[in-house]
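Annex B. Sample input.
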Amino acid sequence: MERVPSGGMLPLILASVGILLLFRKLLRRRHGKDLKGCVVVITGASSGLGKECARVFHAAGARLVLCGRDSGRLQQVVQELTSAAAPLQTHTPRTVTFDLADTALVDKASKEILKCYGHVDVLINNAGISYRGNILETHLLVQREVMETNYFGPVALTQALLPSMVRRRSGHIVVISSVQGKISIPFRSACESAAYPGSSLPCDDMNMLTLSSDSASKHATQAYFDCLRAEVEQFGIPVTVISPGYVRTNLSVNAVTGDGSKYGVLDKTTATGRDPNSVAQAVLWAVGQKSKDVLLAGPLATAAIYLRTLWPTLFFALMSSRAQKERKPKSD
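Annex B, continued. Sample output.
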């Protein structure tokens, strides 16, 4: 029987993580690649983190191609950017409207993207949906919907644009993943105090394995782009995976539930999450530095990720203990 180690090494692991975080912060002070004039494609650019990335890269002088499902909202972003920036220092963004979840349309959309400027310097795969529910009450079609948008969509667009990058031996592929792509934890609360929408189970019971579809799609994304990075390095094409924790956007409000309906609730963890502008600035920095893997999480989540890799037995024991505690009914 495998013995669970004591927690004596845990303070050392936490201290090591603290040093790594400090080192990472110091590295970010370095200046990276000048993106002025570079063609940057951003999916999910009509709101949330994608919109913030559009602002940051537009201010850096990039030539933007903004992608999303709603042409009206994309045009609003274009108007906001052009009215707030100096016209001699920036470029008017262009837009391409398509649904990333419909992979049959992605190839056509990629041709429209390439027509904008003839090539793509940076592709930022940002578009995605979130999920709130538990495995027992989630229809398989909902699992497929999450995977289509969060995994197959970015993969399809990347593979459609990749040949042009390979021919030029130039380009940069970025994907916005999540901490959920590195570790999965039990009992991620999908609600605050009310019962989960459409479910007969109380909130405490519905905590079990929430965000399972999120985590699965992000794990798949991490694996695919890690593999892609190794394969395209010979062509001088860097691949960057950004893994933020909670970001203060409407992602949870627009999340799908187990029966396919919208969640419609702003989670407390999301409402108190990281400022999307700071995440967008981190994406800009990562592109400038051609970073391979960027983790934007607090010390506890970072420690958990390192613990899962360096000391899996202790990690599993801690997760099991957490699950047992949260499974117990709360006293009145």
